[in-house]
Amino acid sequence: METSTVLQTSTGLLAISAVGGLIMALIRFSGKPRPPSWLAMLHGFLSAAALTLLIYAAVTIGLPQLAQAALILFLLAASGGVLLNLNYHLKMVPLPKWMVLAHAGIAIIGFLLLLAATWSASHS
What we know:
Layout: H1 3-29, H2 37-60, H3 65-89, H4 97-122
Helix pairs in contact: 1-2, 1-4, 2-3, 3-4
């Protein structure tokens, strides 16, 4: 397994997941209390797959520092996503907008760091 392949795969999975996250945020900020469950689950599964791949790579082959920083931020974002799902979505309670924004903000910064790490690994 090569680092650049892991980074590219994780970046691709997270890019698709981010589209779902954006759609869910638009749904919430349009006035609906929560997005459809299938979309939340797809977003979570894609993000978890990418996160698992990054953790595996970090433990086995190592990751560049930018990717390590992204991994830490993704772990924080994932914690927020789990809280949103278990404490609000599954209980049919409206998602707190501030928490949606915090989750998204942390994930976006992590994604930008991962994108930079992927770009650097692919062009070195």
